[in-house]
Amino acid sequence: MPYSVSFAEEGFVLVVVSSPCTRDDHYSAMNQAVTLTERHVCSSLLVDLRELSTEAFSTTGCFTFGKKLAETTTHLKIAHVLPSDAKSSQDVRFTSTVEANRGKTTGEFSTVEEARQWLLYK
User: What is the pLDDT of residues 41-100, one digit of tens each?
Assistant: First the structure.
């Protein structure tokens, strides 16, 4: 499986995505994360995308996923840890912007620690 979803002791759900990861994998991870936030009654999600490659993703696909993520996670604050390569990082920033334009509280970070701090103290 190219992703893992778990509940962190600090009180947020952690999703770690790696490559290769298909569109269906992203939707599956999103659904599992939402279920876990509901089960643990938490409102924060940290998505570690450092290993993600979006070579096979289109701009339209990123837009659609960002829109769906905003609709599905209305109650969540989401911290995205950006991928290391430039194109994938740009795609994640675009997806995050789509989410923000739909009222989501999102942030993009270079490290997991920065994302964790933002979720815990903002």
Answer: 999 999 999 999 888 889 998 999 989 888 888 889 999 999 999 999 999 999 999 999
Residue 122: band (very low, low, confident or very high) from pLDDT cuts 50, 70, 90 = low
Give the chain as a 3 state SS string.
CCEEEEECCCCCEEEEECCCCCHHHHHHHHHHHHHHHHHHCCCEEEEECCCCCCCCCCHHHHHHHHHHHHHHCCCCEEEEECCCCHHHHHHHHHHHHHHHHCCCEEEEECCHHHHHHHHHHC
Fold for domain 3-121?
A: Transcription Regulator spoIIAA (3.30.750)
